[in-house]
Amino acid sequence: MSKFMTFCASVSMVVLLALPFFIMLRSRVRSRRALRKFWDRACMGIRWRRRYPDSPKTEIREFLGILVDAFGFRQSRRCCFSPDDRLMDIYRAVFPPGSYMDNMELESFAMRLEKRYGIDLFADDCHDITLGDIYEQTRRRAA
After folding, report:
1. Three-state SS for 101?
2. Cβ neighbours of residue 100 under 8 Å, at least 6 residues apart?
3. Which among 100, 98, 67, 103 has a CA at the least distance from the CA of 83?
4. On the chain, which terminus has fewer CB atoms closer than 10 Å, C or N?
5. Is-contact 28 94, C-beta < 8 A?
6. Rounded percentage of the chain residues whose pLDDT exceeds 90
7. At a CB cut-off of 8 Å and minimum separation 6, what does 53 contact?
8. Which residues is 130 bridged to in the sheet?
9. DSSP letter at 95?
10. 119 contacts 137 by C-beta, under 8 angstroms
11. Phi, psi at residue 83, to the nearest 5°?
């Protein structure tokens, strides 16, 4: 085999090995940009307290803790989510259209909700469901 052929084979191998890395990196950059709309917010606790004045802060924090755990966010990020945020908007921020990866965050969130509250997130169409809608289901189940 000629030196040129060996060189081409080496370059091809490097490109093939690096391509998945660059695809993943591009997806992470797009995801961080999309998540910025949540991370740049002031604490949304006041919105939760206004919408659910009878709910103890600990219950709201527990619910949001389940969300951030399922999505792999830091616990300190739980205050960034509003009851008006749609679940699919959060999912699409993590996995923008065209993403090639899915770590089953929605399924993990659904399993944790079912285990903790006994609710089936996927019983209804969840494309337009908000975090407030889901939280209300957890409250009805607890009552």
Report:
1. coil
2. 23, 24, 27
3. 67
4. C
5. no
6. 55
7. none
8. 86
9. S
10. yes
11. -65, -20
Count of CB atoms within 10 A of residue 108's CB? 15
Q: Which two tokens stand for residue 38?
A: 């949540």
Q: Show the DSSP H helices in the chain as ranges.
A: 3-39, 45-51, 57-71, 87-94, 105-117, 131-142
Question: pLDDT of 56-69, one tens digit each?
Answer: 999 999 999 999 99
Encoding tokens for residue 66?
Answer: 């389940």
> Exposed, middle or buried: residue 30 (CB in 10 Å: 0-12, 13-18, 19+)?
middle
pLDDT tens digit string along 17-52?
Answer: 655 554 454 555 555 677 899 999 999 999 999 999
Identify the residue whose tokens are 């103890």.
56
pLDDT per residue as tens digits for the range 78-122:
999 999 999 999 998 888 776 666 778 889 999 999 999 999 888
Asked if residue 132 has pLDDT above 80, the reply is yes
